[in-house]
Amino acid sequence: MLPGGGIGPELMAYVKEVFRFGGVPVDFETIDIDPSTEGNEELEYAITSIRRNGVALKGNIETKSLTAGIQSRNVAIRSELDLFVSALHCKSYPGIKSMYQDIDIMLIRQNTEGEYAMLEHESVAGVVESMKVVTTDNAERVARYGFEYAKNNGRKKVTTIHKANIMKLSDGLFLETSKKVAKDYPDIEHNDMIIDNCCMQLVSNPHQFDVMIMTNLYGAIVSNVICGLVGGAGLISGRNYGDHFAVFEPGTRNTGTAIAGKNIANPIAMLNASVDLLEHLGFDYHATNIKHAIELTINEDHIHTPDLGGTNSSTEVVQNILKRLEKLTEGHNWM
Ligand code: ATP
C-alpha cells in the first residue's frame, strides 16, 4: 500500500476499514514516500516491496521538485516495473446525474514511454528539448492488450487515437503497429481518430467509443475527459499491468491536496481500485460483494459526496457501504 499525498492516506484508511469489516484476507505493507525528499530510498523500497508482493494499491505520489533529473515517483514506479499498460473501465453509474448515461468505454493507454520518457534537457539557454519515445515492441503489447480485451469481453470495436498527421514517425509507428495487430482480430472493427477530433467526439457523441488505445500523454488527458463525463475524479479506478506486476489506483491519478482532511473526498475510486486488486488476486467473493455494496450505495441509496452533487461526507459513504456489505454477506461463515 502506497498511500501517496493529499487524500491518499484517508482513502487508504477507508479501504482498510472495508477490508477489515468484510474479513478480506489481505495484509497491507504500507510505505510512505515523502514528496519533499529528493533521495530515492523510499521509492526503491516501494519498488522492492511491489516486486516481492506482486501487487500494490496506490495513491498519487507528489513530486514537489521541478528540478531537471528529479523524476516523478509515479512514472518511475511504472517504468521500473515495466507496467506497460494502463486500463480504465469508464462506465456510467445510473444513480449519478451526468451529461450522458450508459457510457461504457475501456481506455487502454501506453504507460511507460511516449511523452513520459522523461528525457528532457536544455540544449542551449532558452531551448528545451523533450523526447517522445515510441517503440514497436511497446506499441504492439498495448495494441494486443486492447484487442485481447475486446475479444475476451464481447467488445465490438477498437479505436486507435493518435496525431500521426503531425507526428508522422512516432504516432505513425503507434498507428501502423495497431493496424498490423488488428489484422489478427478480423471479428473486431478497428478504426483510428486524431486526438483533437477524439476530444470533440467524446464530449459530443461518446457512445461511439468502445475500446480505445493510445499513447501515454493522450491517455492522461482523455482518461480525465471520460472520467469527467461519467462523474468526475472520485469514481473510476485505473489498473496498471506488466507481465509480472500489477498496481491499482484511482483512474485520474489526482492528489487532491486541496480537499485533504475535510471528510469530503469521494472514497469510491480508491475502493474500486481495491476491488480491482481483489479480482486480480482471485478473491472473487470479496470483490463482488464490495463492488455490489458500492453500486447500491451510489445507485439506490444515493449517498453522494459533494463532487457528485451530493451532501454526504466521505465517512457517510463508507458507513453506508459497510451497512450494505453486512446485508449482502449475512449468514456467510468467513472461516
Ligand atoms: P495537485 O497536485 O494540486 O493535488 P492534481 O493534478 O493531482 O493536483 P487535483 O487538484 O488533486 O489534481 O485534482 C483535480 C480535481 O479533482 C480537484 O478539483 C480535486 O478536488 C478533485 N478530486 C480528485 N480526487 C477526488 C476525490 N477522490 N473526490 C473528490 N474530488 C476529487
UniProtKB/TrEMBL annotation:
Transit peptide found in the keyword field: yes
Subcellular location: Mitochondrion
Stretches of the chain forming a coiled coil according to its record: none
This protein's GO CC annotations: mitochondrion
Protein keywords: Mitochondrion, Transit peptide, Tricarboxylic acid cycle
Primary location: mitochondrion
InterPro entries for the chain: Isocitrate_DH_NAD, IsoPropMal-DH-like_dom
Domain named Isopropylmalate dehydrogenase-like: residues: 1-321
GO biological process, one term: isocitrate metabolic process
Membership in a protein family: Belongs to the isocitrate and isopropylmalate dehydrogenases family.
Matches recorded under NCBIfam families: mito_nad_idh
Name of the protein in question: Isopropylmalate dehydrogenase-like domain-containing protein
Organism of derivation: Ladona fulva (Scarce chaser dragonfly)
